[in-house]
Inverse folding.
């Protein structure tokens, strides 16, 4: 797919006005909308994620790139739907009951969106019912976040509560470990926003 | 008995008050507040060094004035001397006197900051820890001016709301009155902060019982983990919070 270098750079550098402008120009020129998204914007988000994993970019850079990406998506989304473009999958993310921390959760959500997923943001303080509702509304993967050891044990209850629902469950957050994921029977774990995207692809059987 | 107490300075006034009443000889090492803000393995390294040094001396038991503290005590090893740790996620359990009381309060009062004398007069984190702290590493403690300089006005505004405004989900300050306050000045500071933020304010009585039992040697296994020599503390993510690591 053709890559628009200027668009790629604008997303990467978090220049949302430039992104919106270039996307609009491309749309006006009649460029294939899926190509704008998949050829330049998604690769830019993958690049910022990889830089983050290599400690070459930090949380603020990821956030502004994701925001710039969103500025482009605001224009593209209705056109993508019209063109029959399908998201990679539908996923839901929320911070567990009692926990109001949302920076990590938001970042993971934005990175997933940036990778081409449709993301339902359930917010913070989510009880089992909220996650269940998301699965009923089509979430194929549910991501749980917790920042405190006080709230982390609720993840176990959510995993039990969602048993047999068919959706995959991923967990993450500062105190969470792979060992804990294994212990409670979650399908996967990730320790940062970039690997969360990879883990989601893996559990859903999409090419990582 | 001869004990060594290694404690977070957040309990300074409470510990001083209780030490006077303890029947035991207790040497004390206060560690700086804010270790829970640095990566867990860094906090562990610092506490382990203190435990190792104390274990070289003639103590019957090393007492830990901590909770699990963001997993900072996960992996802490006893050497030749047993350790005793209250079963607690963090200091608020030790201020409220039981983890059940904290659990109830935590889930019925979401979005609450707790204040005590320690949380008011020792709230500043040392520069050396600040460098290592997770808020610093993630950019969360950048000032608005720094954000503008680095990311431009448009993105700065967004980053401030998204990343740096850590108070946006909070709505209450609860002052825990421990009975060690010299007057009502600490309560007033807590209350004024709540008023200035347009948050709720509540004062609840603290309970020194758990700390008192720690210092007096009354270590009920339901409330304390006793770590025999050459064993290791592990977080266990249940209502017991910590356990002995198996297999060592």
């Amino acid at each position: 797919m053709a890559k628009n270098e200027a668009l790629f750079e604008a997303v990467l550098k978090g220049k949302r006005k430039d992104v919106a402008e270039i996307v609009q120009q491309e749309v006006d020129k009649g460029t294939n909308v899926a190509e704008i998204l998949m050829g330049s914007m998604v690769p830019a988000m993958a690049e910022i994620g990889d830089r983050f994993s290599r400690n070459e970019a930090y949380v603020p850079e990821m956030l502004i790139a994701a925001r710039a990406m969103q500025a482009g998506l605001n224009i593209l989304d209705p056109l993508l739907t019209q063109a029959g473009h399908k998201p990679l999958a539908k996923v839901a993310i929320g911070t567990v009951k009692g926990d109001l921390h949302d920076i990590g959760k938001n970042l993971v959500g934005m990175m997933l969106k940036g990778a081409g997923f449709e993301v339902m943001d359930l917010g913070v303080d989510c009880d089992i019912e909220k996650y269940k509702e998301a699965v009923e509304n089509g979430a194929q993967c549910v991501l749980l976040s917790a920042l405190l050891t006080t709230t982390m044990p609720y993840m176990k209850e959510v995993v039990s509560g969602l048993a047999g629902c068919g959706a995959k469950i991923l967990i993450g957050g500062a105190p969470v470990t792979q060992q804990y994921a294994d212990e409670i029977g979650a399908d996967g774990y990730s320790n940062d926003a970039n690997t969360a995207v990879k883990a989601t692809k893996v559990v859903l059987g999409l090419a990582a | 008995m001869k004990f060594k107490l290694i404690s977070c300075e957040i309990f300074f006034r409470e510990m001083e008050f209780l030490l006077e009443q303890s029947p035991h000889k207790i040497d004390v090492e206060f560690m700086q507040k804010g270790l829970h803000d640095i990566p867990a393995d860094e906090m562990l390294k610092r506490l382990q060094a203190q435990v190792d040094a104390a274990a070289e001396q003639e103590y019957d038991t090393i007492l830990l004035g901590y909770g699990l503290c963001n997993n900072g005590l996960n992996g802490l090893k006893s050497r030749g001397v047993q350790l005793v740790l209250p079963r607690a996620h963090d200091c608020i359990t030790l201020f409220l006197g039981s983890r059940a009381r904290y659990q109830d309060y935590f889930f019925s009062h979401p979005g609450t900051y707790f204040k005590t004398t320690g949380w008011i007069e020792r709230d500043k984190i040392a520069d050396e820890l600040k460098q290592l702290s997770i808020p610093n590493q993630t950019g969360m403690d950048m000032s608005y001016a720094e954000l503008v300089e680095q990311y431009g006005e448009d993105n700065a505004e967004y980053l401030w709301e998204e990343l740096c405004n850590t108070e946006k989900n909070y709505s209450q300050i609860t002052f825990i009155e421990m009975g060690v306050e010299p007057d009502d000045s600490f309560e007033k500071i807590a209350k004024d902060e709540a008023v200035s933020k347009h948050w709720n304010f509540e004062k609840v009585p603290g309970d020194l019982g758990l700390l008192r039992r720690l210092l007096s040697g009354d270590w009920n296994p339901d409330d304390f983990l006793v770590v025999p020599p050459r064993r290791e503390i592990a977080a266990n993510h249940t209502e017991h919070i910590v356990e002995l690591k198996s297999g060592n």
Chain A has nine helices and five strands. Chain A has two domains: 5-82, 90-203.
